[in-house]
């Protein structure tokens, strides 16, 4: 979370047993004002939930270990560079090296945009309006989150189309900004349909969604 959020973090894992379970566990980040309520909700359901840290301003990672003392303190950017080094080494072999170097060097000065969306009363838009805007959700082997993104766009009133690189390469969708997914030549991409009770995500223009 600190690496992706470009911020520092202070961790207290002195109760290290909280980090090791045979059952499935997760690390959850919530607003400080909601932390006690979230922990209480888990506890009420018989699920162990302990606070292990908090984000902090500045380029610093500090970890309190089982001894109760600070056992690691380092700049977040230094640790992130070490974490990312293997990925960048692989990227140098399969991408434009100049682009890889540019991305790697930019991480030291990267800052997250202050984006916040407040939706007071969201209304799901499962029934599309006539002339609803269309959006193509690009999916390829190894990609993640395409269904979640399609669901989010559908809730916002978009007609979503499942698009793969094969669609683009074969000419099913012209690779131009002016192209509309619905006007593509055959074969057409898959139009995403929202899930209904009792069935998984489905696609409406082909027999079954591609995976």
TrEMBL record:
Highest taxon listed in the record's lineage: Eukaryota
Segments of this protein annotated with the region Disordered: 174-211
InterPro entries: Class_I_gatase-like, PurM-like_C_sf
Regions of compositional bias (Low complexity) in chain numbering: 174-196
A Pfam family it matches: GATase_5
Identification of the protein by name: Dimethylargininase
Taxonomic classification: Eukaryota, Sar, Alveolata, Dinophyceae, Prorocentrales
